[in-house]
Amino acid sequence: AQKVTQAQTEISVVEKEDVTLDCVYETRDTTYYLFWYKQPPSGELVFLIRRNSFDEQNEISGRYSWNFQKSTSSFNFTITASQVVDSAVYFCALSGYNAGNMLTFGGGTRLMVKP
Amino acid sequence: DAGVTQSPTHLIKTRGQHVTLRCSPISGHKSVSWYQQVLGQGPQFIFQYYEKEERGRGNFPDRFSARQFPNYSSELNVNALLLGDSALYLCASSLHGTADSGANVLTFGAGSRLTVL
Question: Looking at A7-11, A78-82, B98-102, which range is the least confident one?
Fold first, then answer.
């Protein structure tokens, strides 16, 4: 069985602070994919990143960066110099190689960025 | 270009009734998946359809059913509604949908919020 744990249910920061959202996963698959999605108040999930299990390189995209550590089964997400527009619920998700479109989501972390 | 569109956006039903939710994928996308998101939780996978065939089913009772039409749009049906069925139902589409295509990037709609009284 697959499982994704996001231990932080809510985080509150002041604008321009850096913030890291934690994600820990469990899977027996040797090949798998990890995702982060953002859910603003409007409801739709917005894709942020996909990482496969063979690529442990960290990735940076503007103010966003991701740290994938297979040894600790973690895939953490850092927002640098947070902005009010970053306020949303963020979900980490996991999918097996042959899982098609079946994602296992974590419970989400609600990020509130205050001006 | 239109994204994934879902209808209705909100609806209220009573216990025992049935509901039909509709989804139109992004043009050119052949796979549609349905997820249930209970308030305060992450989405849970219900179904995946690709080329009008069911390709995956989550751990949901038989009261939940779905189908995909020749134009790749989809319907999710829920019979004998329970209070616990109250949730945001999300539809997602992807270009591909076969299991061996790897984990596809899903584009989600804004959802249909169902309240069961």
Answer: B98-102
What pLDDT is recorded for position B66?
A: 97
DSSP B84: G
Reduce the DSSP state of residue A72 to 3 states and report it. Answer: helix
Chain segment B11-47, per-residue pLDDT in tens: 999 999 999 999 999 998 999 999 999 999 999 999 9
Is B107 in Cβ contact with A33 (below 8 Å)?
Answer: no
Rounded Cα distance, B9 and B89, in Å: 10
- Distance CA(A101)–CA(B29), nearest Å, equals 13
Q: Are B55 and B49 in contact (CB under 8 A)?
A: yes
Alpha-carbon separation of residue B30 from A14, B54, B74 (angstroms): 42, 12, 11
Nearest CA in chain B to A34: B103
Number of H helices, E strands in chain B: 0, 11
Which pLDDT tens digit goes with each residue over A45-69?
999 999 989 888 888 889 999 999 9
What would you measure as the largest C-alpha separation in chain B, in angstroms? Answer: 41
CB contact under 8 A, A101 and B106: yes
Q: What is the dihedral of CA B42, B47, B48, B52, to 10 degrees?
A: -150
Q: Which of B41, B56, B108 lies at the smallest CB-CB distance from A107?
A: B41
Q: Quick check: B56 and A101 CB within 8 A? A: yes
pLDDT tens, position by position, B73-93 = 999 999 999 999 999 999 999
